[in-house]
Specification:
Elements lengths: L7 H10 L4 H6 L5 H16 L4 H8 L9 E3 L7 E6 L4 H17 L4 E6 L4 H8 L6 E3 L4 H6 L7 H6 L10 H6 L1 E2 L2 E2 L1 E3 L9 E4 H4 L13 H11 L1 E2 L5 E11 L11 H5 L5 E2 L4 E2 L4 H16 L3 H11 L15 E5 L4 H8 L5 E4 L12 E3 L4 E3 L7 H12 L1 H11 L6 H4 L10 H9 L3 E3 L7 H16 L5 H19 L4
Parallel strand pairs: 2-3, 2-4, 10-13, 15-17
Antiparallel strand pairs: 1-3, 4-16, 5-6, 7-16, 8-13, 8-14, 9-10, 11-12
Helix pairs in contact: 5-17, 11-13, 20-21
């Protein structure tokens, strides 16, 4: 099977704003209005962009299909295990090639045939067709797989494992790997904490801002937005203080927590009851905060135009934060490593993720990330679990860290990792150990749908189409109705 290769960042963007579980719902015989509307909208937009003769000719021409990266550890062995790896991008693939020989040494009794692949729609198709890979890891809608029986429980294997010690991985990390008392995944490959307020000190030093004394509440940051944001003569943004929705502020689902709920002390979903908690004063205040900060910068359209010019996150040298035209954003532990490559000449600092004024001084962090699992219908499950054990072990974790800067969740490995490799990484590692609250991600079986609906509600507020309380009430009704349709028996 051939798949287009996407970087981790592209997948995260998709997870935040697209109904990534829509095909999963369809594969299970359930329609999704939101998915249909999104598909129709996308098709219409694409059609509108191919109006000229030359564009039509180009669209009609055959295009080569990218060949995914792949490898084998013991080609020709009696037993071959297929491993689908859900990340693209040159760095990730190069790292995986470095793992190949190490995996061959650690697992000499069988061949591991690994492939960069789509661990969402293509994997569901493979499961439905009775030909899934033996192991999958990375960029899957995990709780949706768990809830629909698309992965096998691993509890008995974990209990007998001499490699995976459940107490060596934070309980908050296991939460997202489990559903209704059963464990379906093991945190692996990229599975560390998600938050810090990242500061471009190259810009902020000119204002005598000391990152060790800066208050990280949104009241302070709102004032800074007024001071830091600069406009061009045409009204466009030349320097933005902060976009609250850049990077992790705008991510939700696919291994990423719901930042705005956690910042305001709200757990948006209760797995035990299957109920949502969106229609509340705290999230209304959060929406109001985002709108106020956007309005200071000129409004949602102005901020959107700014990011259309520069881009978001920290991976690309041309994105707003690495290129020096955005002073702050909320981002995960990978930011120091990415910035060392994308913006080596600038100085950055890190402090706690922002909280409302009512929680001023509160230090919170959240686990997140990805899981290795065995899809339903896979064969050779004992050997497949040995592959998972390898991915969680020191050899794989060190190789991945050296290649991409990614970290797993094992405490014993984190205790000995060389945080000095990337300036600022020590903040993230220390924040996982010493904090006022370490949040987890609840296993929401309609996580993708929920994330899309939250984003729609927030955009309606930002563009003046709805007030926060009204938008949240509608959001609460929509996701509750969807849950009842998808899981009428709980």
């Amino acid at each position: 099977m051939t798949q287009p290769v996407r970087s981790r960042r592209e997948v995260l963007r998709a997870a935040a704003f697209l109904p990534v579980g829509a095909v999963l719902l369809a594969a299970c015989g359930t329609s999704s209005t939101a998915a249909t509307q999104a598909s129709t909208s996308t098709s219409s937009t694409a059609a509108a962009k191919t109006t000229s003769t030359s564009q039509k000719a180009a669209a009609a021409a055959p295009k080569p299909t990218p060949t995914p990266a792949a490898g084998e550890t013991h080609k020709g062995a009696t037993t071959t295990l297929d491993l689908w790896y859900g990340w693209g991008g040159a760095t990730a693939i190069q790292t995986w090639h470095a793992l190949n020989s190490k995996m061959a040494s650690a697992l000499p009794n069988f061949n591991v045939h690994w492939l960069t692949a789509n661990n969402n729609t293509k994997l569901l198709t493979a499961i439905a067709g009775g030909s899934p890979p033996n192991v999958a890891v990375g960029n899957a809608p995990y709780p949706e797989f768990w809830a629909r029986g698309a992965a096998i429980p691993l509890d008995s294997m974990i209990a007998q494992s001499k490699v995976i010690n459940k107490t060596d991985i934070p309980a908050s990390s296991w939460s997202y790997a489990s559903y209704k008392g059963k464990t379906f995944g093991v945190p692996a490959v990229e599975a560390f904490v998600r938050y810090a307020l990242c500061l471009d000190m190259t810009n902020l030093k000119a204002l005598n801002i000391d990152p060790t004394k800066l208050s990280w509440d949104w009241g302070t940051l709102t004032q800074m937005q007024q001071e830091l944001t600069k406009k061009a003569s045409n009204g466009s943004i030349s320097v933005l203080g902060i976009d609250p929705l850049d990077a992790m502020g705008g991510a939700f689902g696919g291994g990423n927590p719901f930042y705005w709920g956690q910042a305001w002390g709200i757990q948006y979903f209760d797995e035990n009851t299957g109920k949502f908690n969106f229609a509340n004063d705290q999230l209304a205040e959060a929406m109001t905060t985002v709108k106020k900060i956007y309005d200071i910068a000129g409004g949602a359209r102005t901020v959107a135009g700014f990011h259309n010019s520069y881009g978001t996150w920290t991976e690309s040298p041309t994105a707003a934060f690495p290129s020096g035209v955005e002073d702050m954003n909320v981002n995960g532990y990978w930011a120091p490593g990415e910035l060392a490559h994308s913006s080596p000449s600038r100085e950055f600092a890190y402090t706690w993720a922002p909280v409302p004024a009512s929680r001023k001084g509160f230090m919170f962090q959240s686990t997140g990330g990805h899981n290795a699992f065995i899809p339903k219908g896979a064969k050779n499950t004992n050997e497949a679990f040995q592959v998972i054990e390898f991915l969680v072990g020191d050899t794989a974790e060190q190789t991945i860290f050296d290649g991409t800067g990614w970290l797993g969740a094992r405490i014993s490995f984190l205790d000995k990792v060389d945080a000095s490799k990337y300036k600022g990484l020590d903040f993230y590692i220390n924040s996982a150990k010493k904090n006022d609250k370490l949040y987890d991600i609840p296993s929401n079986p309609i996580e993708s749908f929920t994330a899309t609906q939250w984003n729609t509600a927030l955009q309606n507020v930002l563009y003046g189409k709805a007030q926060p309380a009204e938008a949240l009430k509608q959001l609460q009704q929509t996701v509750t109705s969807q849950m009842q349709q998808q899981f009428p028996n709980g």
